[in-house]
Each structure stands twice: as C-alpha cells, then as structure tokens.
Amino acid sequence: DELVSQIAAGEVVERPASVVRELVDNALDAGAGQITVRLLAGGVRSILVEDDGCGIPPEELPLALRRHATSKIRDLHELESVATMGFRGEALAAIASVSDLSIASRCEGAAHGHRLDARTGELSPSARARGTSIEVRELFFSTPARRKFLKSDATELAHCVESVRRHALVRPDVGFAIWHEGRLAAQWKRASPQQRIADVLGEDFIEGSRPLAAEAGPLRLVGRVGLPDLARARGDQQYVYVNGRYVRDRQVAHGARSAYDDVLHGNRQPAYVLMIEIDPLRVDVNVHPTKIEVRFRDGREVHQAVRRAVIAALAVSRA
Ligand code: ADP
Ligand code: MG
C-alpha cells in the first residue's frame, strides 16, 4: 500500500506548491476563516498550513491519512457531484508517503488538541486553539530522483505563492498569509470580491479591466476581462474557476480569446478572472487527481457563454 501511495503521490505531488494547494483545499473545506502558510526553503524543507476550521477528532486522525478515506462524500450521488474541493481522500495519504507529515488538530468543545506523527503513528496531546495544522517536512526525502527535479527555493516559493493566490482570488471571505523563512511573503485580509482581486492582482488590474457578468441557461459567469494595455502587461494572468475550483480549460480559454480578438482585434492573450458557476452534474471534476482539468457535459454551451459574456463586457467599454 505504501508503494501504491507513492505512485499516487507521483500524480498528485509534483512540487511543494502541489502540497500547498491540497492543504489549503482541505482548510477551506473545513470552513477556515484564516489560513496561514509557513514555508522553509521554498517549501522543500517544510510546509506548515494552519487553519481555524472545524478540526479533526482524535479518533479520526489516523483515518485522515488512509487512502480513499474521506469525510466528505456520504453517498454515491455526492460522488457524482462533489461540491467540495477534495479528490476522494487521496491527497494526505499521497503526501505522507513522500514526506515526513504530522497533523495537529483540535475540535470545538474538545479539552485539548491531538498531534499525530504519520511516520511513527504516535498520537500525543497538543495545546492549540480550534483548527488544524498540517506540517510536511522534507518533501521527497525518500525519493531523491524526484527531489532532484525541484528548482531553486525562490522558484518553488513563487509557485507556492501562486498556488495560494489562486485560492485567494476566489475566496475573499477568507484571510490568507504566507510566511517564508520567518518573513511575510504575502498577505490577503478578508475583503469584498472586487477588493480581493485588487489586493491579489494589483489596482492596475482593476483599472485595466472591465467587469463581466452573465447568465446563460445553467451557467452563471462573473469576473473581469483585461483591456489591451493589461493584455500587454499581464496576458499570462488567466484565472478560471468552475464552482470555486481553479481550472484550466481549452474551451473556456478559446471562448475568451476569440471574443477578445473579435472585439478589440487584439493579437495577444487577454488577462482575465472568470468565475463560472454551473450545475455540478454538468461538469466532471474528477478527470485528473490534480483537479486542474474538468470535463463539461456540454463544452460548446460553456464556450458560447464565455464568448458572449466577454464580448458584452468589452463592447460596453468601447461605447
Ligand atoms: P479529501 O480532501 O478528498 O477528503 P484528503 O486526503 O485531502 O482527502 O483529506 C483526508 C481527510 O482528512 C478529509 O476528508 C478530512 O476529513 C480530513 N482533513 C484533512 N485536512 C483537514 C483540515 N485542515 N481540517 C479538517 N479536516 C481535515
Ligand atoms: Mg483534500
């Protein structure tokens, strides 16, 4: 089972940023209002993600590390329409198989917290407030071939920050902080959706973009699309979310790009933040363990909706 987990880890865990993404996903699932990420050496030496969410009862701590153990799917119908971010209990088991992992957690009403060391299985009392802290040390220490593929600490840190940025854009109701080597690397306090975009991507992103909002059949779209100046500066900043989950999708990208080209005769990638809400039964999120790809039941419908929304947003700005 250890080997199976390590193979699964190859799919889920590519670098420290993948660990950060999974741990922040879990913290959000737990209803956290504040999430703090502490990194050492770009996350390679240590990743600590602290939240103030619901916590894990001590008897469930060992379960959290077991493969396919998830507290988030109650029946098969839910599996079809997973509204939470998790990929069916793979992440923690996979991460634990390629690192030195420990969990400390305390639930509401518990007299104190508990800490579980994944390697030794030792469960000990821990003094802490409500919530969960998961610490991942020495990523890939047992798989030196994988560790060799990691880049410089600065590069790994940048990927970790980008991973939190993706969550932060879509969850303005949650506060985020990232510390590296004891220094604050980034911090986003709770804010309105628009203010959060400004905080994360800069005031110039707001100034250089137009709001977008549309409803098309089973879809709802909100976000911002950048004007040409922003495309020049930030054309690589394309954030697409489906039901709160960061994704990359060729049809969405093409819908936005073709609309931008048609209205502004641009020849660059536009910058945008695009949040799509869709009936969960019309999208399959379990295409890949990293969850970055989705499969729409009707891709053309989504393509058209995105295209029309972007055209409408840009046409207004030219009038
Ligand atoms: P999944 O998120 O798909 O359920 P994970 O392997 O990421 O699978 O996590 C396994 C389980 O551990 C979760 O289902 C949840 O019960 C528990 N868990 C993990 N992280 C947290 C957290 N920060 N707060 C509360 N529970 C957590
Ligand atoms: Mg998870």
From TrEMBL:
Superkingdom of the source species: Bacteria
Protein keywords: DNA damage, DNA repair, Endonuclease, Hydrolase, Nuclease
Keyword DNA damage in record: yes
Domain called DNA mismatch repair protein S5: residue spans: 197-315
Function: This protein is involved in the repair of mismatches in DNA. It is required for dam-dependent methyl-directed DNA mismatch repair. May act as a 'molecular matchmaker', a protein that promotes the formation of a stable complex between two or more DNA-binding proteins in an ATP-dependent manner without itself being part of a final effector complex.
Source taxonomy: Bacteria, Pseudomonadati, Pseudomonadota, Betaproteobacteria, Burkholderiales
Family: Belongs to the DNA mismatch repair MutL/HexB family.
Name of the protein this chain belongs to: DNA mismatch repair protein MutL
Whole-protein coverage range: 31 to 349 of 714
Gene name as annotated: mutL
GO MF terms, alphabetically ordered: endonuclease activity
Organism: Pseudaquabacterium rugosum
